[in-house]
Amino acid sequence: MLLNYIKIAWKVLLRHPFYTFITLFGISLTLTVLMVLTSFLDHLIGSHYPETKRDRTLYVMQMHLQDSSRTSSSNGPMSFKFLTDYAKSLKTAERVTITTFINSSNAYVGSQKIKLNTKFTDADFWQVTSFEFLEGKPYNEQNIANGDNVAVITDDFKKHYFENSSEPVVGKDVEIENIHYKVIGVVKASPVTRPFTYADVFFPYTAPKSNYQGTGMRGGYVAMILGKDKADLPAIQEEFQSHIDRIPLPIIQDGTKFAVMDVKSVPYLENFLGSILNGNPGMKAIFFGIIFFVLFMLMGLPAINLVNINVSRIMERASEIGIRKAFGAPIRTLMWQFIVENIFITFIGGAIALILTFIVIHLINTSGMIAYADLTINLYVFVISIVVCLLFGLLSGVLPALRMSKLNIAEALKS
Asked: Does residue 405 lie within any of the structural domains?
């Protein structure tokens, strides 16, 4: 019986190609846009290479300072010394790494300038992150203690800097900002959308121009705190906050006296949203209102369109329903037929959307719009999207079908 319903559904779809096209277009476009956006959000905030441990990592990104009159404030990264004293000393954390954000540098191949993004890190950086080493190894505590001028480079920088990029380059020399470094390792590059780990070249924090010896509280460094387990994060946050609370106030920074200091260790999503989540209730309401509106535009309008099309399609088949009722078809059978038809067309639209999403994501990953992009399809969101479309499809098909199935046979045949 189910196979017969599917055959009927296929014939009905072929009967009105235009309606079929509009219906499939609405379903597939909605799902495609939703999945691409979700894939991009997952790319931004999900646990992906080389930050595969984000679910058990806390981020310390900035210090907020404010004077007692609330007229002067200072926001930004911290000094290496500050993070060493108050983050590295955590007992509940598995490991803590201190690193800079992205710095700009230049290298030259002949007369050609290569613009680089560089990063200064400690040795723990390579344990907290999950970089894939294509050659060599990371620098360690011994390299840092010795003050070695070594560097870890990405495979992309290797291609641009060395004439024969197919040969191993570990042990070779690179000159960056007129300083010579020995290549100690080559890693697979990370996307630019992950600022805690993105760079073309990584140096030990003892390398020249790192400014790690500053004695103030503000500087150019941030920290990532790795927990043994996700459940350990609240305890780590509590310990970190207790360290911060012990700092005597007021403090003097760059000649200004500050009476308020706020430094937080937060998961990546909260760190990513930052000022919105920490802002006033009005800002939160506006933000989530925008999110709701976007979701409504993506899912609501196509769903309403799908309802209208299904109502028109089913109303056109009043005479068919009348004939089937005249031959004794029960209401349950008629209802089941329309349910199967809606499920059938929804899954066709879902299959088209899946193919389109694969194509769009592949184009984004290979276009170079996002350096080293690695967008993937989130199958969980795809399934949820299919269920939502299916729900609207069922409602839009079942309700008119129930109405038509209750029509008097004579009235149905007149339609």
From this structure: yes
